[in-house]
Amino acid sequence: MTSPAPEFLASIGLETHVQLRTASKLFCGCARAFGAPPNTLVCPVCLGLPGAMPTVNREAVRLTVRAGLLLDCEIGLRSKFDRKSYFYPDMPKNYQISQYDRPLCIGGKLEIEVGGARKTIRLTRIHLEEDVGKSLHFESSSGVDFNRAGAPLMEIVSEPDLATPDEAMAYLLALKQILVYGGISDANLEEGNVRCDINVSVRPAGATRLGTKAEIKNMNTFKGVHRALTYEIERQIRVLRAGGAIRQETRRWDDAAGRTEAMRSKEDAHDYRYFPEPDLLPIELTAEEVAAWRADLPERPAARRARFVAAYGLPEYDAGVLTAEKAIADYFEAVARACGNFKAASNWVMTEVLRALGERQMDIAQLRVTPAALAALIGLVERKVITMPTAKEVFAHLFERGGDPEAIVKEKGLAQVSDTGAIDALAEAAIAAHPSVAADYRAGKKPALQFLVGQVMKASRGKANPQLAAEALKRKLEG
Predict the structure, then answer these.
(1) Is domain 420-478 classified as CATH 2.60.40.1120?
(2) CA angle 252, 257, 258 (to 5 degrees)
């Protein structure tokens, strides 16, 4: 049974603000660092003091163009900066240096997948601007920390092609993945590296003209974006069903209350009084320079997923998990190439490695188990030097202390017992200790054998060769 057609359709566009991975700010030499004491990473330029002159951080330009190339944008060889005037406590100059009509990157696209269906989201532009400071509110006072002011901020503007909160979430996750893969941004939401504004409207199904949009400002979590969109779409539908009209306005998201609230009427471009930044020359790029940057692009996440399926024979699910983060994909490839058993490498990384990292809330950069060590551990299991339970015990040791798996096996006496005499003795002891189970097997209840194999493994502390143990038990039970 098909679900009924929706009465209203939503159109969502996102303006995603991304701090670039540079050592210094956009127009001065102040360091970019998170967590420094307030107002310690500032200078006359980023504080907007009279007479201070900005200069452009070329690495910020390169990273913005790199993002544009990864997102299939057209690169503007000649772009410029503009002044965007508005007044707010966290704006030290009472204007922001941004880009208006000549951005660095034009157009572009990003493919997302939701519920097994793929969809292409068009981009409008990517432009470069300076970040603002941060307002801090205390019990009886407020302050402003200008450490963030002047940090290079890339704004990625999408077309209103997103239709649901789930699609918006998929878009943000796919965008974050590409930015991290490209070394463009750390994309750390906890440090405020990624924030976004939402533009959302609804219209009756069948209408071609978009409805009146509302903008929701300064969203700093992806889950918050999903919740805010869910609420706002439902709010606008309620207004339209009641015969009301949607106002074009800027709203804020109250996460605790779970609702959006009106802040002010929506500004238009002319309200910001844009004009060319008089203290900065236009940015001039050459086609050769852009071509060199294009040649230096990394493999994109989607291409890497496809290669993992084709080159390593992995299921699509495994490839998706392993390529979700670039560092994990790099780690898996190093293990796979070292051990040659691609599926075993995938299983170990997806289960033991990711589980252990998740339990300790650690990043893979902190992992003590080197790719070479994990590959050697996989080899020990393949050669039947150790059993799988023993391998997991060795992995736990490696995770805590690092080291060489073969040395650990030797030092702790963990090598698999394959001596037939020793296994025969363990088999006889298991049968003697469980005569009713032995009788069940002789009566035709074959699963009883696995219980007895388990007893042999338990008695040997997991070191007995399980295949030899099964063979020994069968001989004694059937002989």
Answers:
(1) no
(2) 70
